[in-house]
Amino acid sequence: MTAQLLSEVCPNVEVExxxxxxxxxxxxxxxxxxxxxxxxxxxxxxxxGSNRQxxxxxxxxxxxxxxxxxxxxxxxxxxxxxxxxxxEYEKRVVEVEHGSFTPIVMSSTGGWGPxxxxxxxxxASLIATKHAAPYSATMRMIRCxxxxxxxxxxxxxxxxxxxxxxxxxxALDLIDTPVDLVVNEGRF
Length: 188
Prior knowledge:
The chain is an alpha+beta fold.
């Protein structure tokens, strides 16, 4: 869904782009991903301003009520998950891919980490400008899409599929509705 939104304002959006193989580079963190088959979730050309630079995104959704997260504040959980993603990919993206890296960390209850908030605010601004729509309405539409997508995923995790051919229904048809149609018709 995030890739679909990015494709409205960025050229060359790709889902699960492979990273270039390493040619002897070493990274400070032991948890850095050095596998030749490493992939990130999304890449979008020109998202942060430079038309030629690619922005790489990796998404993590965590349960704030899980035992590993419940002994710390929600802010500390977001920070920890963002830092884990940064240690794993940031140096590789900057030094090998010559791009920028943004971890998109969300909780299963609908909250966003600091980097995700900045990223989605920028995305809402770009989409609002493109469609000459109010920023607030565009941001509200993006939040609705994400929350319903999280709800859809949570329900599927809890309920599961009843058969291998079962296709889950979307929580709202809003998820596949073009942004300009939602904003212009006020369907948010």
